[in-house]
Amino acid sequence: MLTVLPETHDDMLAVRVSGQLTNEDFDLYRELIRERMKQYGSARLYYEMSDLNWVKPGAALENLLFDLVHGREYGRVAMVGERWWQELAANLISPVKKRGVRYFTISQRADAMRWVQEGF
């Protein structure tokens, strides 16, 4: 499930993903981030993973392809998670993002949000 967080504004998209991610969740994410990229030329992203237990492989592949095509249109990207494979995913996708991806643990979520918003 994808939830848009209230910190979303202007060129920044803040989302929390949990449970099972579906094609529809990824479609909504891509639509929201694409709108920001189109309007502002780039987009900052806060991406929090909480109790995430399944991602449909086809949806994840589509999202990876989107990131490969649009990676240079991302500004600061923070991925916040609670499992080792989430940090691995952040490290794997980091090279295709213009400024890379910084991984934070759930206990560091406030630092992650501040970093995406302000950079520190």
Task: Please tell me about this protein's structure.
The protein has 120 residues and is an alpha/beta fold. It has one domain: 2-Layer Sandwich (Transcription Regulator spoIIAA). Helix content is 43%, strand content 32%. It has helices at residues 23-40, 57-70, 84-93, 109-118, and strands spanning 2-4, 12-21, 43-55, 74-81, 102-105. A five-stranded mixed beta sheet has the order 1-2-3-4-5, with helices on both faces. Strand 1 and strand 2 form a beta hairpin. Helix 1 (23-40) packs parallel to helix 2. It is globular and about 30 Å long.
Write the layout of secondary structure elements.
Blueprint: E1 2-4, E2 12-21, H1 23-40, E3 43-55, H2 57-70, E4 74-81, H3 84-93, E5 102-105, H4 109-118
Parallel strand pairs: 2-3, 3-4, 4-5
Antiparallel strand pairs: 1-2
In short:
With 120 residues, the chain is α/β, with parallel strands linked by helices. The protein has helices at 23-40, 57-70, 84-93, 109-118, and strands spanning 2-4, 12-21, 43-55, 74-81, 102-105.
Largest sheet: 5 strands, mixed
Mean pLDDT: 90
What distance lies between the first and last C-alpha atoms, to the nearest angstrom?
30 Å
Radius of gyration from CA coordinates: 13 Å
CATH superfamily: STAS domain
Q: Which class of secondary structure composition applies to the elements?
A: alpha/beta
